[in-house]
Amino acid sequence: MNRHSPAFVVQIAETAADLRTAQRLRYDVFVTELGGDGAMVDHANQLERDGFDDHATHLLLRDTTRPVADQVVGVYRLMTTAAAAAAGQFSCENEYDLTVLRASGKRLLELGRSCLHHDYRGGAAMVHLWSALANYINAHQIDLIFGVASFHGTNAAALSAPLSMLHDRHLAPADLRVTARPPGAIRMNTIPPAQIDRVAARRDTPALIKGYLRLGGVVGDGAFVDHGFNTVDVCLILATDAISALQRSIYTRGPRIG
């Protein structure tokens, strides 16, 4: 644990070395901590990477009180429609049919590979990342943000309460309702609404998902079991009013993105 008060700076990755620092943190979180794996994971160099990285923008949260080689403690991967076109698709189109979003005419931004170093969770680190994200959204006039968020593990039955609650309380309207793709797609609404243990459902919902829901986020239809990353994923969508709520929720001026 870092014994000093952190000094946070958020930057956009500009060099190959910057990108590797993001991929190294992703390896620590998604592979070492959560047990994920993938075709392009570089175990020898401890990098979690894929083919979308070269087209995306990476927000890096640094704690400058740490050694230079170990300063990156938070990451967000951002993909605009133009970046997705260059990559061939959005990252989460492997899991979700995004036809309704693509047809919406809105300026889209996909959020992905969000992670924090374990010593920085539950504190100010996420506020700094979200503040930088709000600045990016403003600068690029984004109308709608979306991306998958994950429950750890692939035992969907164990997640029936939170998944059913998400479907009952937070299902996206039809014009934003993306749908999970087979073969990984599973139903979310396996428990009738009156029978959902809502206390257990809230307890078992990851903090990041709850944060998006508090901002007005909604979920697509169906979850996706990702055995490669040892997760059950849901697709979260935040429309223009939710983005405004994100901006209002940042109670301090965010760090400029350099």
Compact summary:
The protein is of the alpha+beta class and 258 residues long. The protein is 31% helix and 23% strand. The strands form two sheets. Strands 1, 2, 3, 5, 6, 8, 9, 10 and 11 form a nine-stranded mixed β-sheet that branches. A two-stranded antiparallel sheet has the order 4-7.
What does this molecule look like?
The chain is 31% helix and 23% strand. It is globular, with a radius of gyration of 18 Å. It has a single domain (8-249), classed as Aminopeptidase (3-Layer(aba) Sandwich). It starts with 7 loop residues before the first strand and ends in a 9-residue tail after the last helix. It contains eight helices and eleven strands. Strand 10 and strand 11 (231-238) form a beta hairpin. It is of the alpha+beta class. The strands form two sheets. Strands 1, 2, 3, 5, 6, 8, 9, 10 and 11 form a nine-stranded mixed beta sheet that branches. A two-stranded antiparallel sheet has the order 4-7.
